[in-house]
Amino acid sequence: MKNTIQITRPDDWHIHVRNGDILKTVVPHSARCFGRIMVMPNLVPPVCKANQADQYREEIVQAAGELAHFRPMMALYLTDNTTVEDVRAADANPHIVGFKLYPAGATTNSDSGVTSVTRIMPVLEAIASSTLVLQIHGEVTDPNVDVFDREAEFIDQVLSPLRREIPELRIVFEHITTKQGVDFVKAAGESVAATITPQHLLFSRNDLFRGGIRPHYYCLPILKRHEHQLALLDAAISGDPSFFLGTDSAPHSRLKKETSCGCAGIYSAHAAIELYAEVFEAMDALHQLEAFASFHGADFYRQPRNQDQITLERIDWEVPANYPVAGNQEDEIVPLKAGELMRWRLVENE
Ligand code: DOR
Ligand code: ZN
């Protein structure tokens, strides 16, 4: 059994880092490992314009300190009011690589999201004829649709018609959680790809209710049945270039998670590559980790692959029970696998 593995430096193609004190706490966790991080724009207020993304990026770069390998990539938040001019300005900015489509009301800070895809067709056409990618939170928001069916319904009601309408639009179907999602991406050809989170590979919806209700396992899209978890595992280790790493690491303060109406989001940046390594090892597929973590995403985004390497060592370490929020003694973030043992660890400061 090998005790270390070396892979090309990976990228995290979907992450939330917030701003202010939380940002200062979480950015170093990603920066220790990843080359690029694809920063989601769902702040309050949302990051809608290229100049806002520039400012936000600067805050992230400052929090990471001097690390040559670390390059935040930015997404702008699509609204009903996004203009073709906004798309052109984003396309001209080397740090902005996508527009994020949140159906209004689908998830955390999505109130300003898109109310109907048909209303923003000219903007989507402009994205299709740019170098930018459309990043989609793929869930319908109709409260009458069962929460576990919202991704599958989105494929039928929104994604398939959109593909027929603008086939050249390049789409990342973010954090897919279902067999239907996997099948859609496989069938769609080169212009569609998907990110897969560690939690959707590690857990099923049973884990949400293991011995009681577990708010730190609550994210959106919600964990699904075991059969869907198996379909995601298959896709992740398959070597299919349409599937790549995106943690959806989403820090929230403990008080906002452990309450009568807790918010969605799982924090995983503290151990992101290590969590994926455990998943791939359990599937006997460590040899496929590098392509999933370091190649497929860069290739889809038409960015150069990273040139340097990281090393993972096989050593048990315990995930802290919480991470105090820098500069705020009242606040802490409870990470995925808090208090549990991890079997792989990134070797830092090489
Ligand atoms: O669980 C989630 N948390 N899903 C999302 O789509 C948003 C994210 C967040 O921003 O907290
Ligand atoms: Zn997200």
DSSP summary: helix tally: 11
Distance between the termini: 23 Å
Which residues sit in consecutive blocks of at least 5 with pLDDT less than 50? none
Strand order in the largest sheet: 2-3-4-5-6-7-8-9
Q: Which small molecules are bound?
A: (4S)-2,6-dioxohexahydropyrimidine-4-carboxylic acid, zinc ion
Strand content: 15-25%
What value does the Rg take, in angstroms?
19 Å
Rough outline? globular
Average pLDDT figure: 97
Q: What's the number of extended β-strand segments? A: 13
Class based on secondary structure composition and strand pairing: alpha/beta
- Written as H for each helix and E for each strand, in order along the chain, the element string is EEHEHEHEHEHEHEHHEHHHEEEE
Structural features:
single chain, 350 residues, alpha/beta, eight-stranded parallel sheet, three-stranded antiparallel sheet, 11 helices, 19% strand, globular, binds (4S)-2,6-dioxohexahydropyrimidine-4-carboxylic acid, binds zinc ion
